[in-house]
Request: fold
Amino acid sequence: ALHAETLLRLPGPFLCYRPPDDAPAIASKDVKTDAITFCSFNELSKVSPEVIRCWCRILQQAPDASLLLKATALADGDTCVRVRKHFEAAGIASDRIQLRGRTASLREHLATYSRVTVALDTFPYNGTTTTCEAIYMGVPVVTLAGEAHAGRVGASLLGALELSELVAHSTEEYVAKALALAADRKRQVMDAETLRQRLLESPLCDARSFVASMEKTYLDIWNHHHSEERERDGTASLLDVTGSMCVGIREDLRVILPDDLNELTAYVLLEQEDWFEDETTFVETVLAPGMRVLDVGANYGIYTLLAARRVGNAGRVFSVEPSSTTVKWLRASLAVNALENVEIFQHALSDRSGNLRLSTQEGSEYGRLLDDDPHLQRGELVKVLRLDEFANQAELESIDFVKLDAEGAEKQIIDGGRRFFDQQSPLVMFEIKSAQSIDFALVRKFSDLGYQPLRLVPGLELLAPVDLSEPLDPYSLNLFACKSDRRRTLEQCGLVAEGDVDQATARKASEDRVWEYLRSRNYSRHRVDGWKARIGSKRSASDTGWMRMLGYFVAAADTDSAPASRLASLQAAFELAAAAGSEIGPGARLNSQARIAWALGYRSKATEALGALVDLDGQAEGAFDWPFLPASPLFDSLDPVDRLAAWCEACARDQYQCLRGFSSYFLAKENLQSLEQLKGNPFQRPEMERRRLLVRLRHGMQLGDASPVVRLTSPENRNPDYWSRKLEVE
Reply:
């Protein structure tokens, strides 16, 4: 056998061809005066002795014809001499062999076909691009079909063009077909007039269909692999439970959940393949192998799973969750991820011990302790312990990190754990939202225990002190707190802005460094020269202020700088961006304002700028008139090429969707219109398509056509099997 793998055959060609935009027009044929010229523009490494013998036979039988060879190696004089000797040995005069090296441009290379009558393919290693180029320039190609892939490329390409009459199956047939084409002057005129259009209308230039068939093939491969994997690791048996599903998230973790879109966690993980809190990434950064973690209010275990993966077998995770139903799901997730460093404790924590009713009527994420009367019939009767009591029983020692999310019961847990917080010194992340307001009393409780409150600066992935005299951003969900010894450890790791941030020196990068930064980003690398020319030709006060803003932003991005200085630089960039006037185009101004506001954790200000950006309605592409920062950092790596309007719309709407609500779960059905406008945009991310489909599913609407990206496995789309099942139902 020639292969051990299972071969999967695509329905069309094995590749696509995209002609260059600046290709020259096809020269008209003059059958009365044009000399017969055969050619091969393949590299010499493909020109075998057998090929040369065939070409010599063709030239011997067409005495007025010449052969034009073009290859990189033919720029060398000694190589040309050796090539000519091969033909002279067969009696072919040297002046009938034209040799050319590489041309200065692709356009010039293609223009060379205007001198050619018939192109001759190499064998047993066929040409690929050269065959497509010849056809595009109106020149027919004769190929010899071989046995292996490399020798059947020509047959594949010509078959896709319905030109199988140009495929030979022996050297004799190869010579005969070349001579017949050279003698058929009428066909030469017809080929010059029709081959280009034939190629453009063929499957070879139908990239959309080609990608669709490839995606379907990838999906088939993945589904086959996934079914085998589930059988091996036992996931299949876990998913045999009616109404369950397995959702992949970051760190290659899988979460077993109810297959119910009314469950917030299930919805969010399908939508974002992560939890919606900005803090998840930072928590992963903070945790290290060997650490010990306490997760209070574990729910389905997103933080428990992430922590267990990060601390490894040398570490330990203590997971507290009162709901017996939710604990079953959590145990299944631990099993499917083979995480054995987690202890689950099914009880609640409060300021007293006993039994309380746990209500989960609003969903498992909103479980609340109701009353200590065990005769109440609402909710599940659960055991309750004081944190100090639990810490003693579970031997909680040297805890490095605590996540505290108890739906309003955090203050009671602190009161019941004063000895724990006094004797230990973990970094604590705690929920501060009570209903729709921020619970400052909870923040003060930690301060009274000697824990300084800190907030996450998401764009810098570090913590900064919280000034309780200043209002927090309305979108704030969590804060951190730690004692001075833990803070010093975090400072040494560059994870906390140490000292007085207000007194820190804001550094500004030089303009050369700004241009270097922009040139390193895909969205801007091709536009730096134009921006430099614009800024340099007529510099105004607005230009100067704008470049200073970018200088501060680039300095803030320098991870080698002190955290306090980075934060001060980012704050300076924010102030300059906010002060920018109308001289800076609205697209550039609003994109940059939204980006810097998000980076600082000023989510409401970022959302305000994004709303105005979306309202520009098609005018946002003016952003590219100025050096700017994309509203979403995810778009730094996306090159808009020549589709500026589509890129700008996708960037603005994408980030607006991500920031205006923690999930589309919380947004009104009317939000669907904005998601529908992203459908078909070439820069639509898989998450935006998942959001669109989830809104339709949750509201009982038909899914209709879906972008193929949700059916394919990628780092941005970990659950294609779920979407394939949903889409196949329709």
Observations:
- The longest strand covers residues 380-386.
- The chain has a mean pLDDT of 90.
- DSSP finds 28 helices and 22 strands in the chain.
- The CA atoms of residues 696 and 702 lie 7 Å apart.
